[in-house]
Design brief:
Blueprint lengths: L1 E4 L1 H6 L4 H11 L5 E4 L13 E3 L9 H14 L2 E2 L2 H7 L4 H7 L8 E3 L15 E5 L9 E3 L4 H13 L4 E5 L4 H4 L1 E7 L2 E8 L20 E2 L4 H12 L9 E8 L5 E7 L14 H12 L1
Helix pairs in contact: 2-9, 3-4
Length: 288
């Protein structure tokens, strides 16, 4: 089987899940190869299972990555499926979740060519980011009235062919953070809490820490319910090897979906080492 990463991750080793997962699978007598998704020499057909893990540079090459997933899925088993990759690499999926009745962060989309009008519709702090992004790339938090700076940010993204998302900043993040609920094999596995990623006055093109102040978290019944509803709303009801549902609190303190991570989510196995055997077994089962 192949564990898929990216060239930057192979060079930096930032994916701390990857070596532990490879070691655990190897200890279970699995033939494991770690390979970059864009390796021109990779023979994907020889693998019985290809598991996307830390292809974290995909957001800069979305069309290429989605096409790669489609090719691999025609040759072998891809986890998660290519249809999920296609849907989940564009955060307009939040609109699909909202239409299915799942509570999500309110979101407005501005595609290239759309008029950039912010002052009349965005009250209070707000966030601008692209619909295709990872690691808070091109994301920034703005105070009420900072419409000129936000418009320049959106125009920069439009110039690169990116669709912008405009969302209210959820102030609960500064108090209760984000909660990431990890599911493997269709079952809840563990959760973490992380601090706010977008600090005030941080430029959209600055590098950001995607998972600050991480700690284990015990989710509430309401959080588990929202996560289950979000996963049930994925089009086509595909079998998901792994999933991560990122939640924040709305103005009333109720959980809502900020992101649904189905392509290359960090599973935070360094915080939840006891979960490694379960993840290993689910991958082995998927390969059988």
């Amino acid at each position: 089987m192949a564990l898929v990463t990216s060239r930057p991750q192979l060079e930096t080793g930032l994916d701390r899940d990857l070596p532990e997962l490879a070691r655990s699978l190897g200890a279970a007598d699995a033939d494991v190869t770690t390979v970059s998704w864009d390796d021109p020499e990779a023979d994907w057909e020889r693998f019985d299972l290809v598991v996307i893990r830390s292809a974290w540079d995909y957001s800069e090459r979305v069309a290429e990555f989605v096409a790669w997933a489609g090719r691999v899925a025609r040759l072998t088993v891809l986890a998660n499926p290519a249809s999920v990759v296609r849907w989940n690499t564009d955060k307009r999926y939040l609109a699909d979740l909202a239409a299915a009745g799942v509570p999500v962060v309110p979101t407005r989309y501005l595609a290239p060519g759309d008029p950039v009008e912010l002052s009349e519709s965005d009250d209070g702090e707000f966030v601008v980011k692209p619909t295709a992004g990872a690691g808070a790339r091109y994301a920034a938090r703005y105070e009420k009235g900072e419409y000129e700076a936000a418009a320049a940010h959106i125009e920069r993204m439009h110039g690169e062919g990116l669709t912008a998302m405009v969302q209210p900043y959820m102030p609960g993040i500064d108090e209760t953070g984000e909660r990431a609920l990890v599911h493997v094999g269709g079952r809840f596995l563990h959760a973490v809490q992380k601090g706010a990623v977008l600090a005030p006055d941080t430029a959209y093109d600055d590098e950001k820490m995607p998972h600050p102040d991480l700690r284990p978290w015990q989710p509430t019944a309401a959080e588990l319910d929202v996560a289950e509803r979000a996963l049930a709303a994925v089009p086509g009801s595909p079998e998901l090897l792994y999933a991560r549902v990122d939640l924040v609190d709305d103005a009333d303190g109720a959980p809502c979906v900020m992101e649904l991570e189905l392509v290359e989510p960090n599973l935070f196995l360094d915080l939840h080492g006891a979960s490694l055997p379960a993840v290993t077994q689910e991958i082995l089962t998927a390969a059988s």
